[in-house]
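Narrative of activities, Objective 1.

The group set out to show that a structural description can be obtained from nothing but a protein's sequence at a throughput compatible with the screening campaign. Below is one input-output pair from the validation batch, recorded exactly as produced.
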Amino acid sequence: MLYQRLLAIVVLCIPGALGVYGWTIMRDVFFNYFASGRFAWLPFMGGLALFLFGLCFLAGFIFYRDLKRNQIQPKLRKWLERK
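Output recorded for this entry:
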């Protein structure tokens, strides 16, 4: 049981770390833009993709965990049952 929990923490930390790294890349692109005047689109889009991947993974994990524990609002639960 202990190893399963440790593995779950590692699986959650990897997308979280990728999201934080994506945020850092986007921040650096903005700082360099204000310093030099050129906007680097490719690193910004890569950082945005990493940030959105990490955010969506963690949000989906929390959503489905709450759905399993019946902690979702009834209005949203009815919408999910229709699909």
